[in-house]
Amino acid sequence: MHIVKPVWLTHPGELKDFEVYSCHVSPDGNRLATAAGDGHVRVWSTEAILNSANPDYKKPRQLAAVSNHSGTIHAVRFSGNGKYLASGADDRVVCVYVLDPNPVSHSTFGSNEEPPVENWRVLRRLIGHDNDVQDLGWSYDSSILVSVGLDSKVVVWSGHTFEKLKTINSHQSHVKGITFDPANKYFATASDDRTIKLFRFTSPAPNATAQDSANNFMHETTITNPFMLSPLTTYFRRCSWSPDGNHIAAANATNGPVSSVAIVNRGSWESDINLIGHEGPVEGRIRH
């Protein structure tokens, strides 16, 4: 493993840099999107990141900086087909961006922002939450986008039309994490009600409506054992499905009094492995 930490890879503020709450690499590996407390989604060149130690590298580092939220952005995710970028924030809104081949029309005159290289424009603003949006997830075929938030809602959006297909009210407290099954059969949501809930789905047709989805996205099972003593003070509960689809790495679990990441097995949905090493609660993890 090679760790790179460029000094310029930040969300700068007047007195200090803003906290970064989410990052995601595009499917082609060429871009890194970051989201932070400055209300910006920033898109970076991964080539520039990997060449950060090369003094002769002169290509642009930041490809775009978009600010379409009125508050802190908690989540940013590329769709699996690489066509869209979605962000969710404490303004209760989910924004969906698309890369426009036309050059950016507005100027950065009078701001400290670098001139944009790419034109990521807002395609849709999705209104469906009554409180902060904490996490986002795309199905592997990009047919649906799911947002979760502090209103305890799980909202399913069409990945084609971005119309709301279903609002799920199965959780009893804040929902702080969402992950998709690589086999495109399930998604899992993690909540402060100390559960992970699994939902079974079939990919909706491009023209599917909320009426068509009435019997889709059905609750499959609830996982409770690893989280019975989990603290309620974490900002996120971001779980992650393994690439082979056989396991879920579940954050903010406990093994006795010790914080851990629980490995949940597909099918039985039970956990017999705990990853222990952090002194405090684990809020997120990702597996490749």
What does this 3D model show about the protein?
Strands 1-2-3-4 form a four-stranded antiparallel sheet. Strands 5-6-7-8 form a four-stranded antiparallel sheet, with no helix packed on it. It is globular, with a radius of gyration of 19 Å. The protein has one helix at residues 46-50; strands at 20-25, 31-36, 41-45, 62-66, 73-78, 84-89, 93-100, 119-127, 133-138, 144-149, 154-158, 164-168, 175-180, 186-191, 195-200, 218-223, 240-241, 247-255, 258-265, 271-275. It is mainly β. β1 and β2 form a beta hairpin. WD repeats lie at residues 20-47, 66-97, 126-167, 168-209.
Indicate the topology.
Elements: E1 20-25, E2 31-36, E3 41-45, H1 46-50, E4 62-66, E5 73-78, E6 84-89, E7 93-100, E8 119-127, E9 133-138, E10 144-149, E11 154-158, E12 164-168, E13 175-180, E14 186-191, E15 195-200, E16 218-223, E17 240-241, E18 247-255, E19 258-265, E20 271-275
Antiparallel strand pairs: 1-2, 2-3, 3-4, 5-6, 6-7, 7-8, 9-10, 10-11, 11-12, 13-14, 14-15, 15-16, 17-18, 18-19, 19-20
